[in-house]
Amino acid sequence: MDRFVINANALVVLQKENGEAVLVKGGITADGFEVLSTYPNGWLTFAYLKDYQGIWWFNARTNKASLFSQDTEAFHVVHEDYSSDSQHVYLEDKPVSPSDPGSFELLPGTPYFAKDKHQLYVKDSQHFHVFDEIDTSSAIARHDYCTDLDHLFHLSSGLRYANEYKYEIVDWLREHYPDIPGWWRTNYAHHADDAMQLTGDWYATATSVFYRTESGGGYRRDAKDTFHLVRSADRSSFEPLDEQFARDRNWVYFQCRIIREADPKSFESLGGRFGRDKQHVYYNGYRVEGADALTFEVLGGTEHLGFSRDQNHVYHAQYARTSQPFGHPDDVLQRIKGADAATFEVLTPSGSWAVDANQVYLWGIVNKKIDRASFTHLLEADPQSWAKDRNSLYNANGKRTVKGIDGASFVMLNRYWGKDDQAVFSFVTGGVYKTADAETFQVTNDQGSAEDKLFRYSIHDGAVRKKKK
What we know:
- This protein is mainly beta.
- 1% of the residues lie in helices and 41% in strands.
- The longest helix is centred in the middle third of the chain and has 7 residues, at 170-176.
- The N and C termini lie far apart (84 Å).
C-alpha cells in the first residue's frame, strides 16, 4: 500500500494502516510530488519526498515534512536517513559540515559507520556524531569496532580509543586484510616493543612516541600496559610537559591526541586535564569556548569534576558533545549557567557541595530546592557528604533528602550523631532513630558512644548498637 498519496483536494496525505488519511504538514505540495525513499523505524515510517520546490524529509514523529535541499539533480538517498546532494551529506534533513558527498560511503561489515575524506560518521539507534581522530583513508570496520592503521576504536556511549582490545580482532584483520600495513602486521612501522620511558607515561623508540595507559588491574591480577601511538609526533623536538600534556615543534598533545588549535610555543599545563596557551583554555584536549585564558584558574582539589573559573564564568566537566551539532561525546568543560564567578566557592574536597552568593550547587548542578540563606555544610566522610538548610538534612551521595529530619532545629553533635527536636540521626548509618529520646540524647565520647535517659548507644562495624542502662 502506498503510504503517501494525493487526496481529492490535491493535498499530500499519509495513509495509515487503519485506513485513516492524515495531512502531511510543512508545506509540501502535490505539484511534482514523488516518494524517493521510505525508512521504517519501528511502527513509524520516515521518508524522503520531492515536489516542485525540492527535497523534503518527512518526520514521522511530528507528521511534518521539512524542505532542506533544492539540488534535485544531484540529490540521492544513500541509505535510510543518510542522503547527499552536490554540497552536503545529510542526516535526515540536517547538513553535516564539513562533509564531502563525493567521497562519502558506508563502511562494510557494520551498521554503525560511514566515512568521507574528512571524518567518520557514527550512528546507532539512539545517537549520531562525527569523529575526526581516525584516518578515514584506511578505516576498516567490524561491527562495533573501527580501526585505522594505528588505532582501534569501539562504539558504546560514544566512540572511544580501544587499543587495549586489539587482541579481539587481530586474527580477523590478519585473515581479511593481510596486505594492509596496519598495527596487526608483524612488520608494522610503529611497534612499541623497544620503547624506552621518557618520563611518566611517555615512551619512545628511535622514531615513534607513545603514551602508556594501564587497564584491567584488580585483585591478584596485574594491570595491562597499552602503548598508544602519538601520531605526527616529531621525535627530535618532542617534550613531555607533565603526566598528560606534551608538545613538539608543530603540535600540542593530550595523551595520544593532537590538540590541533593549541599553540606549542605558549602552551602550559595547569594540572590534571587543564591547559592553556596565550589565547585559549583546554580541557581533556578540547578547547573551552569563550574561556578567558588570562584569568582562568583551576579550583584546587576538584580537578576530577573540572571545577574552574575565569573572570566571567564558572565551569565543570560533563560528558557531552565536543562541538555542536554533531561533535562526538567526551568529557568537556562547560559553563555552569547562572553561577557567579566572583563568589563561587567549593566547600568540600570531593566537590559535592559548592555555593555562590545566590545558589547552592550539588556536584556542580544548581539545586533550587535548597535554601541558600540557611544552607550549611556539616560533614564530609567519603563517600558521604552531609549538609542542611532550614527545611531538611541532605546527603550528596545519591542526592538524597533525609526524611523525618527538621533542618531548622537540626544540630550536628559530632561526626557520628546529630539530632533535631524530635529525632536522633546517625551520620554513619544514615538512619533516623525516632525511638531515641532527642531531648536527653547526648554524645559521651568521640568514638561514637552516646546516651539518652534510658539507653546507651555505640557504633560497631558501621551499625548502631543500643543497650539499656
